[in-house]
């Protein structure tokens, strides 16, 4: 067995979701919505499935989807992309895997920003790379000049930049994005930009893609996710955008991972990406309502939450909320005693970390959130 996987424990998502199923608990741990996504997009997939074709689509993705991706990001983020700069993958995690395998050679150092999506570290190590970390701290999770200078003092081959930051619900400011871009430019570090939450941002916040920063078009790889955009996490349709010199080796790696993605889903995503701007605004407003509801319900019960700029997630500060448990102990007690699954944020660090923050998913119906908080209040 490869030692990377042989020594690996089940992920915290598997663990908490299994406990939730076994106990009939409300699952606010794993990040998936209650609904099944927009009906018209699903209907387009059904039509394409019946009418075909259903054989191998092009390895790079259907031309219609690659063109739709380029148009979508021109409209929503002002990016100037051509379809030749777009690769379709079987989800954003496959996109990450292809990008890492294409760029990282044995012995290369790769910087990740913690708390970090838990796939980054094993993917880097499987490619033979060595992980270095830039650690952010609650409650603000800010990228500071001093931390960036220290992290780039020994030049990394690549940095993985997750914006918005999945574990913490943080959307980075333009100043923070520009700071990271400047560090990459100085030494030619490649930025793998995991931007799957780019559309799920609140309070009117803009998204600042790193690839749009001066001098970054040839150094940045942008990764998006239709599953996150359309709240259909099971679809696993992702896309990679990069300059041709970067995209070509990523496509070669993709060719020997999944090769391609179901054509009916690609057709439906191409349709969905052309939805009017108001659809995306209404989607964000719906999740913002859920965020505000959960924060209000928790506050009424004495829980102290951190700011949630983006994603489906809201974090609770345990000591500030009056709990002596560490985050893992609290999550185990919550699922076993209160019937609510949550995620300890310490699981998103590779080494020692603060163990006081718990993450809850608010992409649920109002009545589910009301009942979940009622149950959590019994833990006091």
What does this protein structure show overall?
It is a single chain. By secondary structure, the chain is an alpha/beta fold. The protein has 2 domains: 3-30 and 278-379, Aspartate Aminotransferase, domain 1 (Alpha-Beta Complex), CATH 3.90.1150.10; 39-275, 3-Layer(aba) Sandwich (Aspartate Aminotransferase, domain 2). It contains 14 helices and 13 strands. It has helices at residues 3-6, 12-23, 39-51, 63-77, 92-103, 120-126, 145-151, 174-187, 226-229, 244-255, 263-273, 277-300, 327-338, 366-376, and strands at 26-27, 86-89, 109-114, 130-135, 158-162, 190-194, 220-225, 238-241, 304-305, 313-317, 340-341, 343-344, 357-361. The chain has a 7-stranded mixed beta sheet with strand order 2-8-7-6-5-3-4, with helices on both faces. Strands 9-10-13-12 form a 4-stranded antiparallel beta sheet. The longest helix is centred in the last third of the chain and has 24 residues, at 277-300. It is globular and about 55 Å long. The model has no long low-confidence stretch (mean pLDDT 96).
Distance N terminus to C terminus?
45 Å
CATH architecture annotation of the largest domain: 3-Layer(aba) Sandwich
Which structural class is indicated by helix and strand composition?
alpha/beta
What's the CATH first level of the largest domain? Alpha Beta
Order of helices and strands: HHEHHEHEHEHEHEEHEHHHEEHEEEH
Keywords: Aminotransferase, Pyridoxal phosphate, Transferase
Protein name: Aspartate/methionine/tyrosine aminotransferase
Cofactor: pyridoxal 5'-phosphate
GO molecular function, one term: transaminase activity
